[in-house]
Model the fold of this input.
Amino acid sequence: MHLQSLLDDIASKSSALAAKGKVADYIPGLAQVDPNRFGMAVATVEGELLGTGDWLVPFSIQSISKVFTLVLALALDGDKLWSRVGREPSGDPFNSLVQLEHERGIPRNPFINAGALVVTDRLLSLEEDAFGTLLSFLRHESGQPDLDTDQEVARSEAEHGHRNAALAHFMASFGNLENSVDRVLDHYFRQCAIAMSCADLAEAGLFLARHGLRRDGSRLLSPSQAKRVNAVMLTCGTYDTAGDFAFRVGLPGKSGVGGGILAIIPGRCSLCVWGPALDPSGTSLAGVDALDRFTTLTGWSVF
Ligand code: GLU
Done:
C-alpha cells in the first residue's frame, strides 16, 4: 500500500464534509478560520513523516492539549491523580456542569473541560513553571522550537470563558482545586490556544504509539500508563460521541474544537487530521470521516 496516495485520496473525499459542519464560534478567536481547510499527517514509529493538504499549517489545538497535560501530570505524580478525576465516559457535552453536582466535584474523566481543569491544577502544583514544561515538551517532541500560544485566541477564550470559570469555581467549592481559579484558568486557556500543525501533533503524540518512549528514547510513561492513556482516549476522547468514534474509527483519539483530531495506532503510528467544520458535539466532521477511511482502507486498528 502506498501511504502517500492513500492520504491524498482520503483528503479529496473527506474534505467535502466541511460543507455539513460549522466552525466553533463560541470562542470568537476561532470563528475566522476557513472551514474548508483540510490536512492530515502520519508519523510512524520507524521515523517516517508524511501528510497531505494543509498538514503543515498551524491551527488551535484546543482540547488536544488535554492529552499532553494528562501525560505530564501522570509522569510526575503517578496514579494519585485518579483520586481527583475519573475515567468513565461522560455522555455529556464537553463543557457540561450537570454531572459535577451529583458527583461532588469529581469530573468523570480528564478530557471533559472539568477534568482537564483538575489535571492542569495538579500540574501547576507539581511544576514551578507548568506552562514552560508543557511547551518545552511539545517543542521537543514535535521538533519545532518556535511553537507557541496564539495570544489572541487565548485572550478571546478568557473573555468568553464563563462556563469554564463556573466549572472551576464549582470544583473549588468541593475542595477539588489546589490553586486559585484564576491561575488554573489562565494556564488552561493558554494551553488550549497553542498553535500546531498536523505534522507537529502527529510527531508530538508519537510517544503514545511507542508505548511511552519519547523522541530521544527516554521514557515518559511506563507501557502500562501509555496503554491506559490510550484507553481513556478511546473511551472519552471525543466527548458524547466517543462511542460513535470508537465504532467508526476504532482507535484512541482526542478531538479539539479547533478542528483537529489526534489518533494513535499503538506500535505503528500517530495520526493527526484537521478540518475546522465541526459536528454538534465539537468534533471535526471531515476528521472523523478521514480516520474512518484510513482505518477501513489500511485495516490498521486496535481491533
Ligand atoms: N478551549 C475549549 C473550551 O474550553 C476546548 C474545548 C474543546 O476543544 O473541546 O471550551
Q: What stands out?
A: DSSP finds 14 helices and seven strands in the chain. The longest strand covers residues 39-44. The chain has one domain: 3-82+89-298. The chain has a mean pLDDT of 96.
